[in-house]
Amino acid sequence: ASRTEGTKIDRNLVLNLKPGATTRQMVIDAFGAPSAINYENNEEKFTYTFKEKAVPVYLGGLVENETKGKESLTTLELVLKDDIVYSYRFKSAEN
Question: For 8-18, how does the pLDDT look when each residue is reduced to its tens digit (9 = 90+)?
């Protein structure tokens, strides 16, 4: 069983991002609405976060063991200037 939070971030779509060419609308079309938007110094920062927790299930699915769950967190941060992607950072971590 796994529990998810946020929007799943497709790695292939991330590879298609082209700083200087990809527009704000293309980002929203590809990834949906961001988890957070921040504005500073004429820049717009989009943050997408996707959390997935895999939980081992015992006794035919009746008991979930939360403590042994593996959680993975994927984040995509994009900086936009004038509605164009200026830079981005993608990281995926598992604990």
Answer: 899 999 999 99
